[in-house]
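quick one: flavin mononucleotide bound model?
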Amino acid sequence: MTNKILVTYSSRTGWTPGVAEAIGKTLTENSFQVDVIPMLEVQSLSTYNGVVAGSAIRSRAWLPEAVQFIRAHQDELRVRPFAAFLVCMTLAMPSGENYRSQISTWLDPVRALVKPVSTGLFAGGLDISRVENFSDRLMFKLSVMFGVWKEGDHRDWNAIHQWAIQLKPLLLNYSE
Ligand SMILES: Cc1cc2nc3c(=O)[nH]c(=O)nc-3n(C[C@H](O)[C@H](O)[C@H](O)COP(=O)(O)O)c2cc1C
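yep, here:
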């Protein structure tokens, strides 16, 4: 039987799709057939043996449309392996790793809907010119000025690859 996996994501400023693509690439190299699709374009989960879903973080939470995706598909997600990831800037801070357990709680609303077989917490990126809202842009300019966050691409491709590798047995050996 083909192991067909959906890697789906939600993003606002364009850093999360690359994380999803990298997860998809690693799973493909590990003998899965993988579709990488934005959540808003997913019609049905019925053809997939497993689902990996991730979202950018805003205000310490998954994007609302990403939580809505899990809510809408919770029955289908409960009967197949489901893994969740988030992409944020806190992990890109010099002391970011100290906040890992706190960051993990940002997935609690997802866990309350469907229990993931694994969760991935990743640093994303910051390009202030891509932030839609004026007051948010101002807040980020100040955070950069005061050295809290640094603009640029902070994605850790090795960490993403390692997480995707350990997903393989979790996506294969699943019983409810
Ligand atoms: C308005 C706004 C709020 C954010 N809030 C948080 C936050 O609470 N914690 C955090 O670690 N990162 C936060 N970030 C950083 C994003 O999670 C990070 O830039 C991520 O890479 C964005 O992914 P995307 O480009 O796929 O949307 C925020 C970014 C924006 C623009």
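Residues 157-172 form the longest helix (16 residues).
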